[in-house]
Amino acid sequence: MIAGIPLFVNLFFVLTVLFTLFLFHGVVKNSSSITVSAKANRLLIVLIIWLIVQSVLALNHVFSIDTTSFPPKIALIGVLPAILTIILVFLTKSGRNFIDELPILNLTYVHMVRIPVEITLYLLFMYGAVPELMTFEGRNFDILAGISSPLVAYFGITKGKMAKGSLLAWNVICLFLLLNIVVNALLSAPSPLQKFGFDQPNIGVLYFPFSLLPAFIVPVVLFSHLVSIRQLLINKVKA
């Protein structure tokens, strides 16, 4: 853990991780396909194992002990496996059959986790663990996706007040908001790639539990957008 960060900040983020896990489990569990929903608990076990592995790595300072390595270890060990898994799911027939049966309503509710994530980033900024540019007072507008997601889910999908084109636009815009903070986080972290935040670099994501943000929460949010966009484009939306 990071010295000087109050315990409540760590606990708040751990709860955010568990909230993400709960929401994502609900995405699979609430599928209208019995075959897909039956995989929810097995997927939950896999994700818990992933969280444990990533936590052990961070607690043993694997990500923070050498910030001169290229690519950064958090990207190589924490992020890349998750991204490759997402790519594999989209490239295989069985993977596409799986994601096409996920309910877009639940996928949209997943983005609520971006609200506590942004609160965490602001707290980390206050305690010197991330630069201001990673907060909603800087270049990070991702909290807008979190605030709007339950409104889009309820009024746009449940109540049917938004056309598919509008839902697609919302997902694309929020995906770019996500990519914006990911790029800024990467370029402000201490590594050979660092371009910003030299006075107060992004060290937060190199330590437990905050390393679970790029290793777990960001891939879940990214996956949720990509699946929703695919479903809307192929006209296969299951709300």
Short description:
The chain is an all-alpha fold. Helix content is 65%, strand content 0%.
Helices and strands, with pairings:
Layout: H1 7-29, H2 34-37, H3 40-59, H4 73-91, H5 93-99, H6 104-109, H7 114-126, H8 143-158, H9 164-188, H10 212-233
Helix pairs in contact: 1-3, 1-7, 4-5, 4-10, 7-8, 8-9, 9-10
Roughly how many Å apart are the termini? 40 Å
How many domains? 1
| Total of DSSP H or I helical runs spanning 4+ residues | 10
Radius of gyration: 18 Å
Mean residue pLDDT: 93
Order of helices and strands: HHHHHHHHHH
Overall 3D form: globular
| Proportion of helical residues | 55-70%
Summing up helix and strand content along with how strands pair, one would put the structural category as mainly alpha
Strand content: under 5%
How many beta-strand elements?
0
Low-confidence stretches: none
Main pleated sheet: none
Description:
- Helix 4 (73-91) packs across helix 5 (93-99).
- The protein has one domain (7-233).
- The longest helix is centred in the last third of the chain and has 25 residues, at 164-188.
- The N and C termini lie far apart (40 Å).
- By secondary structure, it is mainly alpha-helical.
- It has helices at residues 7-29, 34-37, 40-59, 73-91, 93-99, 104-109, 114-126, 143-158, 164-188, 212-233.
- It is built from 10 helices and no strands.
- It is globular.
Task: Pick out its properties.
about 240 residues; mainly alpha; globular
